[in-house]
């Protein structure tokens, strides 16, 4: 019998479980009887978001893999490293990006929910703690990078995941518009 797998999708900053990639992945996996899919609405506080993710993992009765986009990629990398899980990250935030993200401190409105919230200096400092200097098991990580990412420097991402599996492509953007095409690769990596 095939092993049951739980895939947890982690959305990016100022997004939600209603993000385009989350919905694409959920739709694609609907017919997969051995895969459970979960896409939580992550708390805006990085420390609370990590607690949410860890609770899902601890309560899961099946093997867990993480998929994270942008800031969700940072979370996926951090949690996968802590729990010895596989992660797939899409144009992820990495340690060397965080020092340039201080402008996140302030008030924001969520793209999907329209909720207004404050990302505090404490949240920013908590974010810095999630940037791992080195991965314990680099081959547990598969990173998808678009070299034309207009938000994050792809060179820093490539360098960070240099000992991991990486698919780096020219063109594209931060949204990773051809994500659907990569789902078979992602599932191959997870199994």
Largest sheet: 6 strands, parallel
C-alpha Rg (nearest Å): 15 Å
**CATH domain class:** Alpha Beta
Number of strands: 8
Strand content: 15-25%
The gross shape turns out to be globular
* DSSP helical segment count: 7
Helical amount among residues, as a percent range?
Answer: 25-40%
What would CATH call the homologous superfamily?
Alpha/Beta hydrolase fold, catalytic domain
Secondary-structure element series? EHEHEHEHEEHEHEH
Strand order of the largest sheet: 2-1-3-4-7-8
CATH architecture: 3-Layer(aba) Sandwich
Give the integer mean of the pLDDT values.
Answer: 94
Distance between the termini: 14 Å
> Looking at CATH, which topology would you report?
Rossmann fold
Tally the structural domains: 1
Report what the structure shows.
Strand 5 and strand 6 form a beta hairpin. The strands form two sheets. Strands 2-1-3-4-7-8 form a six-stranded parallel sheet, sandwiched between helices. A two-stranded antiparallel sheet has the order 5-6. Helices cover 36% and strands 21% of the residues. The chain has 191 residues and is α/β, with parallel strands linked by helices. It has one domain: 3-Layer(aba) Sandwich (Rossmann fold).
């Amino acid at each position: 019998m095939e092993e049951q797998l739980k895939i947890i999708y982690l959305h990016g900053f100022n997004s939600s479980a209603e993000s385009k990639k989350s919905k694409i992945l959920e739709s694609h996996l609907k017919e997969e009887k051995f895969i459970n899919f979960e896409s939580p609405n992550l708390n805006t506080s990085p420390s609370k978001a990590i607690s949410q993710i860890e609770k899902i993992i601890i309560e899961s009765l099946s093997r867990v893999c993480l998929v994270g986009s942008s800031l969700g990629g940072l979370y996926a990398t951090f949690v996968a490293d802590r729990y010895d899980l596989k992660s797939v990250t899409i144009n992820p935030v990495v340690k060397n990006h965080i020092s340039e993200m201080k402008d996140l401190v302030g008030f924001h409105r969520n793209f999907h929910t329209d909720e207004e919230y404050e990302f505090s200096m404490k949240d920013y400092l908590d974010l810095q703690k999630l940037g791992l200097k080195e991965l314990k098991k680099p081959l547990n990580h598969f990173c998808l990078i678009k070299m034309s990412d207009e938000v994050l420097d792809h060179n820093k991402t490539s360098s960070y995941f240099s000992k991991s599996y990486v698919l780096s492509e020219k063109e594209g953007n931060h949204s990773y518009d051809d994500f659907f095409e990569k789902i078979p690769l992602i599932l191959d990596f997870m199994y």
